[in-house]
Design a protein that fits this description.
single chain; binds alpha-D-glucopyranose; Adenosine kinase, small domain; UDP-N-acetylmuramoyl-L-alanine:D-glutamate ligase; five-stranded mixed beta sheet; 2 domains; 43% helix; globular; eleven-stranded mixed beta sheet; alpha/beta; binds 8-bromo-adenosine-5'-monophosphate; 455 residues
Length: 455
């Protein structure tokens, strides 16, 4: 059996030395404000009665495409609670936006993959980042941590990089209302099987992947200042909205590839099949992609691999052999060089290249995730050491045994059909503070960590 605790210790020490050496990461495109509301049973039940219980229940059976009424909002929240599943929908109606605003929140936090990774990489790890923020309101700016975090600003035709707090844009606030519930949360006759959240996005910019002129017109110059790029936020696109942003993305990828900048795609759950197919068609221009089991399954579906898609959702913990088969298909079909898969309990990375640094970066990411689950927010790279005390997930032993048997995996590394497969069991925090943003912490840390280990 592998001595995981020793490997974990080695990985965090390695990361503390290496990660701050990274000179610049470009982050596009989604940044928003997360207004987090912890749901209360009585309050929610009263609202459901007032809005019309039957109407609300209808939407808890099947999610609407977007939210245009209060019963749809409450029904969608119920949809998530009943299943213990996350979901996110665009809130189109102004009266519903006003309703959510009046309902209120318990906490305001940085949101969006870009915002969360900007604060983590720039504010905590000290790695300079250039972030795309579609709208910089005062509130949005105030949520950025101090540190080397920059947004492009154009003054008298010249590009400047400034901290978001110095941008002084008096723009709109893009607010995502996050309705969180704990495991066992009861409402009407329902009980949540696990903790999770429903997100109502009162946001006209991130939801259509609006890309600012400062970025479009100076992209070449911006790219010269970075060594890596991470792209996210394509998940909210629909058949009606995807064309223009996907075209800009293709142009951006061309520039990034010209400068040999490795680009990672953070693939969040993308409900629209057409958009998923579009993303699949540009995946080969990315160096790396990060996803979970639901996302990998949804990609297998559009690739015509129905059986594999179902297998990925059939077991807990997720069958690692099915995951590896799916990753191989994805790598061969698209040419993407690195696939980072994360699920509750373990991570895998399939890479075209070899080395223990790939596995060590996964270990660093798992510690960062556990630290985030423990504390809600990490405040320094050194603080991640505290997560060493969190126990390794026991169920992952079975996963490791299956991989050892199938692929002769040793110390978390195997050779599979010409690729390297790296595996790690993760540390799971018993009672996490909140689950929003853990996925971003995992993917950002692993990608940047891996790159830093070979600098
Ligand atoms: P977890 O709850 O395990 O994190 O899973 C998140 C899942 O919620 C997604 O992968 C997807 O299955 C589901 N989901 C999300 Br997010 N948005 C959804 C939507 N608009 N419609 C249906 N399912 C959604
Ligand atoms: P997604 O939302 O993208 O699925 O990312 C969530 C990831 O966070 C999971 O894959 C899991 O690895 C990790 N995670 C969760 Br959820 N709860 C955790 C916990 N309590 N401790 C550590 N990691 C956790
Ligand atoms: C999505 C949501 C955003 C949230 C983020 C967390 O981007 O729109 O509100 O902060 O996911 O990963």
């Amino acid at each position: 059996m592998t001595e995981w605790e020793g490997l974990y210790k080695g990985a965090i020490e390695r990361a503390i030395k290496s990660v701050p050496k990274v000179k610049g990461v470009l982050l596009g495109y989604n940044t928003n404000i997360d207004a987090i509301k912890y749901l209360e049973r009585k309050d929610l039940e009263e609202r459901i009665e007032k809005a019309g219980r039957d109407e609300v229940l209808k939407y808890s059976e099947e999610l609407p495409e977007k939210i245009t009424s209060v019963p749809q909002l409450l029904g969608s929240i119920l949809w998530s609670i009943r299943r213990g599943k996350a979901a996110e929908l665009f809130v189109e109606s102004c009266p519903v936006r006003f309703y959510m605003k009046r309902w209120g929140w318990n906490e305001l936090r940085m949101g969006g993959q870009v915002g969360i990774m900007a604060n983590l990489l720039g504010g905590v790890y000290g790695v300079p980042v250039i972030a795309h923020v579609p709208q910089l309101s005062r509130l949005q700016a105030s949520l950025f941590l101090d540190g080397p975090i920059y947004v492009p600003k154009v003054e008298n035709g010249k590009l400047k990089l400034v901290h978001p707090k110095e941008f002084q844009g008096d723009e709109e606030s893009c607010i995502h209302f996050i309705y969180e519930f704990p495991r066992g949360f009861k409402v009407l006759e329902f009980e949540a099987p696990r903790e999770n959240r429903f997100i109502g996005a009162a946001d006209d910019y991130n939801t259509t992947v609006f890309i600012r002129d400062e970025f479009r017109e100076n992209f070449d110059e911006i790219v010269k200042k970075v060594q890596l790029a991470i792209i996210s936020g394509l998940q909210a696109l629909t058949e009606e909205t995807y064309k223009e942003p996907m075209e800009i993305l293709r142009q951006h990828l061309e520039v990034l590839n010209d400068y040999n900048i490795p680009v990672h795609l953070e693939f969040a759950f993308t409900p629209d099949e057409k958009v998923r197919k579009e993303i699949l068609s540009v995946l080969g221009k990315f160096y790396s992609v990060g996803l979970n089991e639901v996302e990998l399954s949804s990609i297998m579906e559009v690739m015509g691999e129905k059986e594999l898609a179902e297998k990925l959702l059939a077991h807990d913990p997720v069958d690692p052999i099915a995951v590896t088969q799916a990753m191989l298909k994805l790598a061969k079909e698209t040419g993407v060089k690195r696939i980072h898969f994360h699920t509750y309990g373990y991570y895998l990375a399939l890479t075209e290249y070899r080395g223990e640094h790939v596995r060590d970066a996964l270990l660093f990411a798992a510690l960062a995730a556990a630290a985030k689950a423990m504390k809600g927010n990490i405040t320094s790279l050194e603080e991640i050491r505290d997560a060493l005390s969190v126990p390794i997930n026991e169920k992952a032993r079975m996963v490791e045994e299956a991989l050892a048997k199938e692929y002769s995996m040793n110390n978390g590394i195997a050779e599979v059909e010409g690729y390297q497969l790296a595996f790690i069991p993760t540390k799971i925090v018993e009672k996490p503070k909140s689950t929003v943003g853990i996925g971003d912490t995992i993917s950002g840390s692993a990608f940047v960590g891996e790159f830093s280990f070979v600098l």
